[in-house]
Structures are given as C-alpha cells and as structure tokens.
Amino acid sequence: MPTKHLSILSANLLVGLFAGLFLFTQPTQATTQDDIASKNLQIQELERQIAEYQTQIDQRQGAAKSLSNEIGILNARINSVQLEIRSLALSIGKTNDEIFTTQQSIAIAEEKILMRKGALANALRLLNHLEQDNLVEVVLKNNSLSDFFNQVNDLTSTQDNLRINIDEIKSLKTDLETEQDKLEDQRSELENLKSIQEIQRRSAEQTKNNKNNLLKVTKGEESKFQNLVKQSKADIEKIRAQIYYLQQNGVTAEDAVKFGELAAIRAGIRPAYLIAVLEIESGLGRNVGRCNRPEDPPEKNWRKIMHVRDHQPFLDITAQLGLNPDTTAVSCPQFVNGKRNGWGGAMGPAQFIPSTWIAYRDQVARITGHNPANPWNIEDAFTASATKLANAGAGAKTRAAEVAASKAYYSGNSRCATASCNSYANAIQNKAAQIEQDL
C-alpha cells in the first residue's frame, strides 16, 4: 500500500480512537449531571423552607416584645440556620460534582489536542512526501493523466487538513484555558462554601446559647423578660462572643462597636449590619495578614501572591503611608490540596485588595480626615466597607436592600445567585440579627 494512503489511514484511526474515548466518558458525565440536577432540586426546596422561617421572623419582629415571641424568633433562626447548613452541604456536594465534570472536560480537551497534534504531524509528513517531486517528475511517475490529478488532489486535500488541524488546535487550546479558569472558580466556590458552613455552624450554636441564656435568666417569666428589655444596653461581653473571627484578626469588641457604629452612622447604614459583614469577611479570610511579613519565605512575597493588577496600586499605597512594601502584611491566597487557588494581597481588617482600595481611598479620607487613608487603620477600613455597602444600596436598611448589597460586596453583582453568594448574604443577616440584640 502506498505511503500516502497509510498516512491517511493513520489519521482516520486517530479520529476513531478519539470518538471511542468521547463515547466512553458520556455515561459518566450524564450520571454526574443527574446528581447535580437532583441536588439543585433539594437546595431549592430548602431555600423555600428557609424563606418561610424568615417570614415567621419578620412577623414576630413586628409584634409586641414578649418572652414567648422572642423565643419563637430564636427558634425560627435556629431552624433556618440548620436548613442553611444542610443546603450548604448539598452545595458542597454539587460543587464537587461540577469540579469532577470540569476535570473530565479538561481531560477530553487535552486528549483532543494530543490527537490533533498527531494528525498534524501525520499531515506534515504526508505533505513533505507529496512535495518532494517537482511537476515534471510527478507527470513522469504517473502512468496516466488520471493518476497525476489524483496526486494533485491528495496534495490539496493534505494542505486543507493541515489548516483544519492548526485551527482546531488553536480552538481547543482556547477551550482548555476556559475550562481551567472555570475549575479555579469552582475550587474557590468550594472553599468559600466550606468556610460559610463553618460560620453558620458557629452561628447556630451561638443562637442556641442565646436562647438557653434567655430562658435561664428569665426562668420563663414574662415580667423578668420585660425588665431585661427596659435595662437593655450595649453588652460588650455578648458582642465579644459574636465577633470571633474579627478578634482573631486583632479587632477588639470595643473597637468593633466604636468604629462600626461611627462608620455605619456616617455612611447611613445599620451598625449591626456593617459589623456582621466585617465578621463574615474575616471568617472567609482565614489567611488575613499571613503573607509578606518579614519572617515569611520568598514564595509569600507580595509579588508572588498578588495579582499583577494590584502590584502598582500596592506600591502607591505603601509609598504614601511610608510603609515597606516587602514587609507589610497582606492576606495569603487560598490553598486547595497544597496548590494555590486564586490570589492573595487583601489588606487590613476590611480585606480590600489594593486596586479596590484606590477607588475608595479619597472618599474615606474626606470622611475620616485621615489623608492618606490607611487600609490597616480600623476606622479607615470600617469606613471603606460602610461606604462600599452604602453605595450598593444598604442605606435603605431593609432586608432585601442589605442582601443585594452583601451580594455586590461579595461578588460585584447584587443579583448573584450562586450557592456561596446566597449563603454569604444569609449568614450576614443572621449575624446582624444576633449583634443587633446586643448593641
């Protein structure tokens, strides 16, 4: 059999092998998609039940203050958070399924690229073989005019296949990059879901403790509850229990209340809501201030862990403040299975990345009188967060407005509907309700 025909057969064999690989992966992907769809239905049902509990809470909050009403609110909050935790568990499972599907898509894209490269090499060899003879030699080697035109057609066909393979490889590489970006986003979503789930577990325990303490202090008597209402004032000890993560990052309960109220009032939003946002953000940012310190290894230097977009803003900020950019602590990126996922570089208690801080710096300076504004200063950091939330509509002080502002703060999109986005906004509302009672 002529060499050129063997080459064409080899190319066809490569296509056949790939088709077999694709058919093999289809049943697995279909099963995973069924699992994802099933989890979505369960999550939707839990969200419906959570909304019912929120309606109960809203109705009870509009009624006269009484012990039974307060216990009813706490019970509804406990049940709602427990449903949130179940929903988060399903979302974590769903995201794992989505990661598996994306990894399969990446494997298929990589296999396609390899096979296309094989076909490309085959086409190049065939083209080289066909182009070795000049026109006179081709005419003399062929027994008939028909054979001559067949060889010319083979040459044209091979050149066309070469172009097709090159274009296909370019397209596949673009698809591969898209899938790899998608995988990184899904891994970030997974880590955030796990963090929010832990935050909600802590919230559920805290609400249960509040309920038990209320029953213990009042002994179930309405008169004792009414006395508590009359004597109510800011309870620093209770607030201290509510801001576990902020305290881990060096913000005291006293400072949280002082600067939280100051920044919120200036921006026209609820103080409890602002403190709740900062607490949940601190819970998500487990690596706050753990990179770029003097004792940290080179791989934790700001140039390594920060997106290039933030390099110049970070240098501008530290230069204005007279800080050494190589020893000023910033947040570390997340690590998943020992591999970095996303970027670090967020600064101070409010965890603003440098490029975002630049956008609010002048506005914060006008409000606080600190020029330049400092992201590591508690008053400036809280003011920046309050300003950002107010700009997103939190000044309306309604649940809907605050949920939208929380989503915008988290994702940049006030209508974000991902599992972590919804859970983040709900976690803030739960935490704000707890803090509100103690302010």
From TrEMBL:
It comes from the Bacteria. The keyword Nucleotidyltransferase does not apply. Gene3D superfamilies: 1.10.530.10, 6.10.250.3150. Keywords: Coiled coil, Signal. InterPro entries: Lysozyme-like_dom_sf (IPR023346). Residues 1-30 form the signal peptide. Residues 29-84, 159-200 form a coiled coil. This is Transglycosylase SLT domain-containing protein. It comes from Candidatus Yanofskybacteria bacterium RIFCSPHIGHO2_12_FULL_45_19b. The lineage of its organism: Bacteria, Candidatus Yanofskyibacteriota.
